[in-house]
Amino acid sequence: MNLRPAQEEILKYENGRLAISAVPGSGKTFTLSLLAAQLIGNGRINPAADQQVLIVTYLNASVDNFKARIRQRLEALELPSDRGFDVRTLHSLALEIVRLAHSGIGPDSDTLNVLDDNQSSHYLALAVDSWVEQNLDLWLAFLPEDSPQMRARWRDITARTARVFIR
Q1: Confidence of residue 58 (pLDDT cuts 50, 70, 90)
Q2: What are phi and psi of 21, to 5 degrees?
Q3: Helical pair 60-76 and 28-41, crossing angle rounded to 10 deg
Q4: Domain that holds residue 46
Q5: Bridge partners (DSSP) listed for residue 87
Q6: Per-residue pLDDT for 109 more than 60?
């Protein structure tokens, strides 16, 4: 296997956090898959003790690709290919953290869901309308003039401002 010097350096990693940032096609998936299998294969990660290599990526397609490559490499090393690693998107990791942080808080804590853009916009509109209704005098004080057009425009500004804070 011919590795570039930067890839060889990555494969020398032994513990702690590691972040790899590079252009598309530079071999990140290949190298990190090798590293994950290597850490499991040489015993630095012990799946029997519930230890895992965590790989966080942005795209769902990358998750599937990483998992397939790590499994393939572990099988080549004649190791179990279903333990010792976890590959997630940044968003699925964030959702898991929220679930763990809020487990047991309420009856719906196990039913948290990620909303799509339409659902998110719907709930944001409900929240903005509720806030405006409860704080109408304060909200109206910001309007340069009180007209239906200005109220609609100011409501849109309020919703866009809320969206910026949420994201």
Answers
A1: confident
A2: -125, 125
A3: 40
A4: 5-102
A5: 55
A6: no
Residue 32's pLDDT is what? 93
Pair 11, 35: CB distance under 8 Å: yes
Residue in this structure with the two tokens 């499991």, named with its chain if needed? 40
Rounding to the nearest 10 degrees, give the CA dihedral for residues 13, 55, 16, 100. -170
Q: Which of 69, 102, 135 is the last residue of a domain?
A: 102
pTM over 0.70: no
Same domain, 43 and 120: no
Alpha helix (H) residue ranges in 77-134: 90-102, 117-134
* Residue 151, both tokens: 């109220």
- Look at residue 135 in the predicted model and tell me its pLDDT: 92
Task: Express each pLDDT in 118-151 by its tens digit.
Answer: 888 899 999 999 999 999 999 888 888 889 999 9
Closest CA to 31 of 50, 59, 5, 60: 5
